[in-house]
Amino acid sequence: MHSLPEEATSREVLAKMSLIRRFEERAGEMYAQAKVGGFLHLCIGEEATVVGATQALRETDYMMSTYREHGQALARGTSPEAVMAELFGKEGGCSRGRGGSMHLFDLEKRFLGGYGIVGGNLPLAAGVAFASDYTGTEDVTVCMMGDGATNQGTFGESMNLAALWSLPVVYMVINNQFGMGTAIHRHSAITDLSKKAEGMGVPGVKCDGMDVLDVHACVTEAVRKAREERSPQLVEAVTYRFRGHSMADPEEYRSKEEVAEWRKRDPVLAFAGRLVEEGVVTEDEVTKIDEESIARVDAAVEFADESPFPPLDSLYDDLYVMGGQVQGWYSVDERSPETHRGEDEREAGKVAQDLAEAGAAHASDEPADEEQDLSYRRGEDG
Which of 100, 168, 233, 342 has the fewest Cβ atoms within 10 angstroms? Predict the structure, then answer.
């Protein structure tokens, strides 16, 4: 058993895990209320893995994650308001409403994004680590992935280059036992994922992903080796997600008894219990930390609600092509009869913009009553 850190750090770790848990719970509620669109992947149950790893980093180190990355952004210091607003698709989000749940980004915190493509972040992490090495900094890149990503072609390619070029990178597998709904023993011939990169020259270690201190100790040592020895590392954190793969997951591939058994090892409750047991905090202080987390999430939801959506005429901002190799229009706005280049939306003219605004408003209108709704669906409105 690892010793507890100093009191201030112990409180900080508990507060971060508590904030992540309450944020994720509320995000699920907001999705059910249709305030969050698209996909939503919650990390409830994985808080120790997230916080233990991020606590091992310097402020100048880089982190990259998967599409299950709300916790990572919060742990790195992105405000709950900016994360929640991004989930809502609002201008006040950390990606200005353009990324949504799966594509959070905060350069100031050196959190280089969540990625919707499984394994898509692995070669990018090698590139960031190469840049750190090339420019002679001591910055380390930690790149997280799910267990399913270890079966992607990018896994072997990235490990090989990281070892070949001696890159300062730590690849971390968050092994939550399932690649979507497929159990690990059914999708990977090697179930000890910490050994999966040895053949490419990247040594691996395994840690208890439900124990924040074990994760921290393991990742700290891996980061040290990557930073000081220029030796890329692989860390496998064995954890469990208490919710489904996403909010659309019926969870028919695992039993309620299995989930209940893992919930007995709840990382937030376990760490709080140990702090109380060793006299670092009292039960009342644990309750206060939890209440403060709830209050912060309440404020984040209020901010997200009040933040405006991006204006329609910004729809094509920040799209680009390199050079003149693309012939014709590379984006087209067809929301009005006056079809035009997407990049020219801001100069499209008042008529086109008014029609686009009216069309968007009409699409969100609800039928006045049930009878009107039925007649509309029967085609009786002409």
Answer: 342
- Residue 222 located in a structural domain: yes
Q: Where are the beta strands (DSSP E) in the chain?
A: 62-64, 141-146, 169-175, 178-179, 182-183, 204-208, 233-238, 332-333, 340-341
- What are the beta bridge partners of residue 64? 143
Q: How far apart are CA 50 and CA 254, in angstroms?
A: 23
For residue 11, being part of any structural domain is answered with: yes
d(CA 201, CA 186): 26
Q: How many CA atoms lie within 13 A of 285 on its CB side?
A: 15
Q: Do 332 and 302 belong to one domain?
A: no
Structural domain of 256: 7-306
User: Which residue among 279, 306, 333 closes a domain?
Assistant: 306
Indicate if 294 and 327 belong to the same structural domain: no
Q: Looking at the structure, do residues 194 and 96 belong to the same domain, yes or no?
A: yes
d(CA 52, CA 359): 48
Is residue 89 within 8 A of residue 95, CB to CB? The reply is no
Best CA proximity match to 14, nearest among 289, 256, 309, 242: 289
Q: Is residue 2 part of a domain?
A: no
Instruction: Give the CATH number for residue 42.
Output: 3.40.50.970
Closest CA to 234 of 145, 164, 148: 145
User: Tens-of-pLDDT digits for all 382 residues of the chain?
Assistant: 899 999 999 999 999 999 999 999 999 999 999 999 999 999 999 999 999 999 999 999 999 999 999 999 999 999 999 999 999 999 999 999 999 999 999 999 999 999 999 999 999 999 999 999 999 999 999 999 999 999 999 999 999 999 999 999 999 999 999 999 999 999 999 999 999 999 999 999 999 999 999 999 999 999 999 999 999 999 999 999 999 999 989 999 999 999 999 999 999 999 999 999 999 999 999 999 999 999 999 999 999 999 999 988 888 887 776 666 666 666 788 877 778 888 788 887 887 778 777 776 766 555 545 444 433 333 444 3
* Residue 182 main-chain phi, psi, to 5 deg: -105, 120
Task: Give the number of domains in the chain.
Answer: 2
List, in order, residues 6 or more apart from 378 with CB less than 8 Å away. none
Whether 88 and 177 share a structural domain: yes
